[in-house]
Design brief:
19% strand; 282 residues; binds adenosine monophosphate; Pantoate--beta-alanine Ligase, Chain: A,domain 2; 2 domains; three-stranded antiparallel β-sheet; Rossmann fold
């Protein structure tokens, strides 16, 4: 029988656990999540456990990163299931604060990261990175881990968090981990649970079209033409609409004309009411 995962729900309790570990010389890794965990999240926990003595996973569906018309209410929630998976992955502590712990009455601060958060997701979800940067800053200052783990699945988010941590001198190392995929290439995501069987089949095309686009630009296709063609292929494959397919500087996410510096291809597209994102190194 596996033992159950200890859980704390407020900052003083979290800090007591962390202080006890620090007192015995342990290093601490933090894995922020919104729950509804899958192998992608668990890979972050396992990596954290390889590199740190103790691992804290946070579970908080952050209302500030959803716009009013988005899926905050229907976002999947399963703390008991998540907790069981985390024990098996080697997590030591679950931090699951209530909304009032994170955003008490009168909360008035918003962390805004300019430049890297402006294009792509920033354009289509203008509220999103303010919400992410604010909650990640709070989680890191609450736990003060040595290292914090993020997935490349949310590539722009990873770059925003790196920038913010450098800019604010937050004494935490940010580590990015590779995207975990289903056998057919679809990036694992809590939102994949929204897809009907037909949509699920179409969803797998996103990663294949990204692959084909990378091949095309390596074979000399002009970048803008390759981006446009990829968007057309997504619609032809059955996607409802395409927010963007963009080949960008891998660090700043600024537009590029060639592949002289490290570049990344990033895409966001809709299947009915479900929005999927994916990205890869070019
Ligand atoms: P979320 O719960 O969606 O906010 O994700 C929490 C963390 O897990 C973020 O750092 C994500 O980038 C990461 N993550 C989500 N899906 C995957 C995946 N398929 N592979 C790797 N990391 C992921």
């Amino acid at each position: 029988m596996t033992s159950s995962l200890p859980v704390v729900r407020d900052v003083p309790s979290l800090r007591r656990e962390v202080a006890a570990w620090r007192g015995s010389g342990r290093t601490i890794g933090l894995v922020p999540t919104m729950g509804a965990l899958h192998e992608g999240h668990l890979s972050l926990v396992r990596t954290a456990k390889e590199r740190c003595d103790r691992v804290i996973t946070t579970l908080f569906v952050n209302p500030r990163q959803f716009a009013p018309h988005e899926d905050f209410e229907r976002y999947p929630r399963d703390e008991a299931g998540d907790s069981a998976m985390l024990v098996a992955a080697g997590c030591d502590l679950l931090y699951a604060p209530e909304r009032a712990v994170m955003y008490p009455e009168g909360f008035a601060t918003n962390v805004i990261v300019s430049d890297v958060s402006t294009p792509l997701e920033g354009e289509f979800r203008p509220h999103f990175f303010g919400g992410v940067a604010t909650v990640v800053t709070k989680l890191m200052l609450q736990a003060l881990p040595d290292r914090t783990y993020f997935g490349e699945k949310d590539y722009q988010q990873l770059q925003v968090v790196r920038r913010m941590t450098r800019d604010l001198d937050i004494p935490v190392t940010i580590e990015g981990c590779p995207t975990v995929r289903e056998a057919d290439g679809l990036a694992m995501s809590s939102r994949n649970a929204y897809l009907s069987p037909d949509q699920r089949r179409v969803a797998a095309r996103l990663n294949h079209i990204i692959h084909d686009t990378i091949k095309a630009v390596h074979a000399g296709a002009p970048i803008e033409a390759a981006e446009q063609e990829a968007a057309q292929h997504l619609i032809a494959a059955g996607f409802t609409s395409v927010d963007y397919v963009a080949i960008r500087d891998a660090e700043t996410l600024a537009p590029v004309n060639d592949l002289a510096r490290p570049t990344r291809i990033l895409a966001a597209a809709w299947l009915g009411k479900t929005r999927l994102i994916d990205n890869m190194a070019v």
